[in-house]
Amino acid sequence: MGGQIKVEPLNVVFGARVSGVKLSSISDTDFEELYQAWLEYGLLICEAQFLSHCEQIEFARRFGELEFELAALSNVLEDGKLRCDDGSDDVMNILKGNMDWHHDSTYMPIQAKGAVFSAEIVPSEGGETGFADMRAAYSALDPKIQKKLMGLRAYHSLHYSQKKLGYASQSLKGKGINDDGDLDGYGFHDGPVSIRPLVKEHPETGCPNLIIGRHAYNVIGLSEKESSELLEYLKVFSCRPPRVYHHQWQPGDTVVWDNRRLMHQATPWPTDQARVMWHSRIAGDPETESALYD
Questions:
Q1: Three-class DSSP category at 64
Q2: Three-class DSSP labels, 153-212
């Protein structure tokens, strides 16, 4: 790439570390190079950026309209105390649910395009974020399985995925991102359940990608048992080396991922330690990312 930007591919089949640029003051020319690298690699890791909230929002807007500007994925309350980790805290239940592999907003009317995610406070151990390349996963499948998947569709629901883990979502109805920036009930809507294909062509690269993850269930045309077995097989097959990367965060790190291509997951950390992350979600194009319905 030209200019001062340096892109170093990770030692997996996707992703790259980016250096030589300050995201808060990136030029239009450098951003275009960055965007093309994002499409090529799916995940960009930019260390020691230390973006302010306003800077993160403005940078995220360079990728398109935002589904939401900024939300805290955090176990720290406004008064500085830590959230209870005993199953009684709705936000902690969401954070734990996110430890299973997923795409963002497949349960919404429009699936997200991507996300900008940054670290403010990180624990002394654990708390990595994992990413899995669903383009590479589809390409690695046996052609007979690829053929079987074409035309299959599944339901996607956050109510379903949280209930499956034993976390009730009824108390979260009607809520969204609260005054503290918490994702407090976001996605627990009462509208129609989204339906999405198991294989979807990326609108900008033209490459086929698996769209599966924890929110997906009841593949249409299959029995409940067949559906569960297929979705579990695809997840296990997809989320193994060299198609996965787990990022160990340092304060100030910022990453950008392509949600149309990658799944991701949180990982456990000692919840008697603070972890504060900031998420800006890039909205999908309604022409290409809208859900199907019955």
A1: coil
A2: EEEECHHHHHHHCCCCCHHHCCCCECCCCEECCCCCCCCCCEEEECEEECCCCCCEEECC
Q: Per residue in 213-261, pLDDT tens?
A: 999 999 999 999 999 999 999 999 999 999 999 999 999 999 999 999 9
- Runs of H (alpha helix) within 46-109: 53-61, 90-97
Residue 207 burial (CB count, 10 A):
16
The identity of residue 91, as a single letter, is: V
Residue-range definition of the domain harbouring residue 278 = 6-284
What is the distance between the alpha carbons of residues 160 and 139, in angstroms, rounded to a whole number? 28
Question: Does 293 fall in a domain?
Answer: no
Q: Is residue 294 part of a domain?
A: no
Q: How many angstroms from the chain centroid is the CA of residue 283?
A: 12
- Reported confidence tier of residue 167, pLDDT bands at 50, 70, 90: confident
**Total structural domains in the chain?**
1
Neighbours of 75 (CB within 10 A): 24
Q: Which amino acid is at 286?
A: P
Q: What's the CATH number where 159 sits?
A: 3.60.130.10
CA distances, 139 to each of 31, 73, 237 (Å): 29, 32, 12
pLDDT at 175: 55
Residues with Cβ within 8 Å of residue 77, at least 6 apart in sequence = 83, 180
Q: Is 123 helix (H, G, I), strand (E, B) or coil?
A: coil
Alpha helices in 25-157 (DSSP H): 28-41, 53-61, 90-97, 134-140, 143-149
Q: Is residue 236 situated within a structural domain?
A: yes
